[in-house]
Amino acid sequence: MNVYATLWDGSDWATTGGRIKVNWKLAPFTVLFPDFNIDGCVWSGIGLTTPCSTSYKPKWIDQKLTLREV
């Protein structure tokens, strides 16, 4: 499972009407997703969709990141 994010320049409209510009010299930029929570289920490998089932729940599905991984 992956999480993808994109970076775009919203300087003209998202930063106080364009008065504050993005300083691209500060790159590379990093992002945090505090309290990010996603629900998923194990794909059966059959069909395009798989209903989530509570009958099969692998141990890793409830695994949380360690402080080192955060």
TrEMBL record:
Protein's organism: Kingdonia uniflora
SUPFAM superfamilies: Concanavalin A-like lectins/glucanases (SSF49899)
GO MF annotation list: hydrolase activity, hydrolyzing O-glycosyl compounds
UniProt name for this protein: GH16 domain-containing protein
InterPro entries: Beta-glucanase/XTH, ConA-like_dom_sf
Gene3D superfamilies per the UniProt record, alphabetical: 2.60.120.200
Superkingdom in the source lineage: Eukaryota
